[in-house]
Write a structure and sequence with these properties.
336 residues; mainly alpha; Ferritin; 2 domains; 77% helix; elongated
Length: 336
C-alpha cells in the first residue's frame, strides 16, 4: 500500500506529454523503439526452443522496430542535429512500465505463458500506436508529422500480429478482439482506479478508526474520525489519480472519470467500517465494523482475482493479510 501511494505521488515529478517539444517527442520515440526492439529480441530468444514460428514473428517485429528507430534518428539529425536528448518512457506521465525481462523467463515454464507474451506485445504495440497518433497531432513540421503518422499506422498493424502469431483471423476473431478491447478499456478506466480507491479507503482508514475506537470507546468521536479520514482520503486519491496520468498515451480514459471513480470508492471503502459507529453501544458497533471489514477485504480480493487476474492465494495474502495487520496495529495503538 505504501509503495502504491509512493508510486502515485512520484508521477508528479514526471513531464506531461503535452509539455514535450518536437525534438523531445522524437527523442522519446527513438528510446522507445530501442527498448521495444530489445524486448522483442529477448522474446524471440525465449520462445525459439518451444515456439519457433512465434519466435520468427517476434524477430521480424524486432527488425521493424529497428527500422523505425533508424528512420526516427535520420529525422532527428535532419531537423535537430546529432545530439539526441535523453528522455525515456519513465520520464513521461501515462506511459506503461515494461515488465523486466528476467521476470518473464520463469513464466515460460508455466501453462499459458505464450498467451501472456502475445498479450503484452499487443499492449506494447497499442501504446506505441496511441503515442504516435497523439504525437503526430502535436507536430507542425510536415515531414515529422508524416513520419509519425506512418509509424502510427505501422504499429496498429502489429497489434493483430502480436496477438495472433501463427493464428489466422476470421470475422469471429475480429469481433472477439473488439469485445476484448472494450473489456480492457472498462478495466483501465473504471475497475483499476476503483479498485485502487477501494483498497486505499478500506485499508488505510483501519488504523485511525480502530485506534480512535479503542482509545476513546466513544462511538460518536470514532464516527467523526472515520468520516474525516474517509472523505479526506477520497479527495486526496481522486486528485492524485487525475494528476498522475492524462490518459492520452496510456489509453486509460478520461482522467476526470478515473479521479471521480477513485475518490468515490476510496470514500466508500472508509465509510464502510466508520458507519457502524453510529450505533451507540461501543462493542456492538465494533463487532459490526469488524464484520464489515472482513466483507470488504473479501470483496476486494474477489475483484482483484476476477478483473486483474491475480491468483486467489496471492490476492488473499496481499489484501486480507495486509488489512489484518493494519487493523491489528490500530487496535494495539488504541488499546495502549
Amino acid at each position: 500500500m505504501v509503495l502504491s501511494l509512493f508510486s502515485r505521488f512520484a508521477n508528479f515529478s514526471k513531464r506531461q506529454f503535452s509539455d514535450l517539444s518536437e525534438q523531445e517527442i522524437l527523442a522519446l520515440a527513438i528510446s522507445s523503439e530501442e527498448d521495444d526492439g530489445r524486448i522483442y529480441e529477448a522474446y524471440a530468444d525465449m520462445l525459439r526452443p518451444e515456439f519457433p514460428d512465434t519466435a520468427k514473428i517476434f524477430e521480424e517485429m524486432a527488425e521493424e522496430e529497428d527500422g523505425h528507430r533508424r528512420a526516427l534518428i535520420d529525422m532527428h539529425k535532419e531537423k535537430f542535429g546529432d545530439n539526441i536528448p535523453l528522455i525515456r518512457r519513465e520520464h513521461v506521465r501515462g506511459f506503461y512500465s515494461r515488465k523486466p525481462l528476467w521476470l518473464m523467463r520463469p513464466k515460460m515454464m508455466t501453462p499459458g505463458a505464450i498467451d501472456d507474451i502475445r498479450k503484452q506485445a499487443a499492449d506494447m504495440e497499442a501504446q506505441a500506436h496511441r503515442f504516435y497518433s497523439a504525437a503526430a497531432k502535436r507536430t507542425t513540421d510536415a515531414s515529422v508529422r508524416k513520419l509519425l503518422g506512418d509509424l502510427a499506422r505501422a504499429e496498429a498493424g502489429h497489434i493483430g500480429t502480436a496477438m495472433g502469431a501463427e493464428k489466422k483471423y476470421v470475422s469471429e476473431d475480429i469481433k472477439e478482439e473488439e469485445r476484448a478491447a472494450e473489456h480492457r478499456q472498462f478495466v483501465l478506466t473504471y475497475v483499476q482506479p476503483g479498485l485502487a480507491g477501494l483498497i486505499d479507503g478500506s485499508v488505510s482508514t483501519l488504523a485511525p478508526i480502530f485506534a480512535t475506537a479503542f482509545a476513546t470507546q466513544d462511538t460518536w468521536t470514532t464516527f467523526l474520525v472515520g468520516l474525516a479520514a474517509s472523505v479526506g482520503a477520497g479527495i486526496s486519491m481522486g486528485f492524485t489519480e487525475v494528476a498522475s496520468d492524462d490518459g492520452v498515451i496510456s489509453g486509460r480514459g478520461s482522467p476526470t472519470i478515473r479521479g471521480v471513480v477513485t475518490g468515490l470508492m476510496t470514500t466508500l471503502g472508509g465509510l464502510g467500517h466508520a458507519l457502524p459507529y453510529l450505533i451507540p453501544h461501543f462493542w456492538t458497533a465494533t463487532y459490526v465494523a469488524i464484520a464489515i471489514v472482513v466483507v470488504e477485504l473479501l470483496v476486494i480480493t474477489w475483484i482483484q482475482h476476477k478483473y486483474m487476474e491475480t491468483p486467489w492465494l496471492k490476492a488473499m495474502l496481499q489484501i486480507i493479510l495486509g488489512g489484518a495487520l493494519v487493523l491489528g496495529a490500530g487496535v494495539l495503538i488504541g488499546s495502549g
